[in-house]
Amino acid sequence: FRMFHNYKATTAYLGISVIHEVVTKTENVLSALRVQSAPANEAVVEWLLEVKDQFDIWQEEMRDGLTNFSAYKTNLLDFISISKSCVKPSQRIKELNLIYFDYKNERSKRVVPAINKVVKSVLSINSLDKLELISKKVDSAIYLINADEDNYKAAQLVANNAPKSAIIVIFDKINKQVLLKLGRVGVNHTITNPIKGSDLKRELLTVTESHFSERRLFITNKKIHNFIKKLDPLPSTISQVTQICDDEDKHINDLVKVVKSDSIFSATVLQAANDPIYGLKKVATIDQAVSIFGKKTIKAFAMTQLKESLGKIDLEAYAIDEKIFSKVSALRLSLMLKWYSKVSISALNILTSTAILGNLGQLLLSKEIKEFNKIDEFKRLFESEQLDYAEAKLINTTTAYVTSDILKFWNLNSNIIDSIKYSENLHVAPLEIRNLCVANYIVYKLIDHRGVVAQELSEDILALLAQEGLDSYDLEKALAFVNEKLIE
After folding, report:
1. What are the angstrom distances between the C-alpha of 105 and each of 97, 145, 192, 199, 413?
2. pLDDT the model gives residue 267
3. For residue 97, how many other CB atoms are within 10 A of its CB?
4. What pLDDT does residue 216 have?
């Protein structure tokens, strides 16, 4: 760090801009590493070695007496990004500026006062020329773009001029083509008109956490991101089931018709209805199964079909197979149903789905680990450490984050997405969904990725329950039920 700190001052004084850019970035990375508790992971070390290789080239050019030095490798500086603060997103957001771009002045008058309550200040502009001027001057802010047909053009302009900023784009309707187009310029945050205060606040907290929060390294995992972008749209059965289950006016008979229209899904529901883990009496028909399970649980079962959209399943890195993967989802759903039906029935609309989907990201991460020939190293890590630590150390992301990215691409309910994402980082979970994040955290901990069910509640979970004002009795009873059914 001290060496590069000196290099930065020297290259600035001598006006060697091409070297100064790399030196500055490297100093920042080394500074971040100094405050981390864990050792530098392999990807960071590999990047530092690439920097060294570039310096060897420049050193040879100096020895040859050159004064114009060669350009560094494309994307060398983009491989690692560093956030700027150690405070929580809810605190950090109050220090940030927001630029709101909207052609419609009347809409701006309604939206800006609401934003002003959350961030430090809001600058409202209504022309692309002004946006271009501002984005060239303000490189570390949140840009909120609501420009109708010019949304993509405006987002691309800001992404080019202010690469350190966070960009949220607002649409009347979002589809896969829109998301793909924005993804090409690095924009992955969207909401829809009319703007709901809760959705806007959540998205603002999300971009604050990803762009401006804890001082730590984020390694860009382009392969996983590109894989997600190539996924097929949400299967029609899942889409129809979700719409019916989320519509209070829709009758259970509407749901029965959709389930019956898909033979594979019908078989899944019937099989689940007769699985001892759910404690039901023998069920012979789809009508019976749907009526007994109800909308919330059928919606969760629909989510189990999502894994079919991710291609061939290979979970060797996690030392499990597809059967165990599905078993984990079923066990977590059973525990969540038994426990949270005593806590909050309404919350189960979200929690039944998160119980099923919590491990979805492992399907992609396992492929990535295998491709990099790191299976043995990964297994050693998660045997001695927590799984999310092993994932973060080796591939710089976690199951929860990848799962939330997949579900965001499929445009599922934001509470499902975010309560999974923040389940392993409760200290930054938005207050309005903290109860959901806590429920996910507990269920994921009690039933691990291999389907091993805890026999009793650990001290840390008991402490968390007490902190959240939750009675441990209901959870203990639900956990005992799951263990009992496993024995049967």
Report:
1. 20, 13, 18, 21, 30
2. 78
3. 15
4. 44
Sole residue written with tokens 């100064």 = 20
**What's the pLDDT score for residue 445?**
93
**What confidence score (pLDDT) does residue 335 get?**
94
Amino acid at position 152, single letter: Y
What kind and span of H or E run contains 81?
Answer: strand 80-82
- Classify the C-alpha dihedral 247-249-251-257 as positive or negative: negative
Max intra-chain CA distance, the chain: 85
pLDDT at position 195, please?
84
Q: pLDDT tens-digit profile of 222-235?
A: 566 666 666 666 66
Q: How far apart are the first and last CA of the chain?
A: 60
| Rounded-to-integer distance, Cα 411 and Cα 70, Å | 44
Report the b/e string of 237-274 with b at 16+ CB within 10 A.
bbbbbbebbeeeeeeeebbbebbeebeebbebbbebbe
Angstrom distances, CA of residue 132 to CA of 62, 146, 156: 39, 15, 10
Nearest CA-CA partner of 424 in 466, 361, 350: 361
Whether 207 and 430 have beta carbons less than 8 Å apart is answered as no
Tokens of 239: 């889409």
Question: Positive or negative CA dihedral for 460, 465, 471, 476?
Answer: negative
Which residues of the chain fall short of a pLDDT of 50? 84-86, 214-220
The pLDDT, as a whole number, for residue 33 is: 77
Report the alpha-carbon distance of residue 87 to residue 65 in Å, rounded: 47
- Helix %, strand %, coil % for the chain, to 5? 65, 5, 30
Quick check: 13 and 42 in contact, CB under 8 A?
no
Q: Is this prediction's pTM over 0.70?
A: no
In sequence order, the β-bridge partners of residue 144 are 100, 168
Which pLDDT value is given to residue 58?
A: 94
Let me know: does 123 contact 176? Beta carbons within 8 Å. Answer: no
Q: What's the residue count for the chain?
A: 488
Looking at residue 36, what is its pLDDT?
A: 63
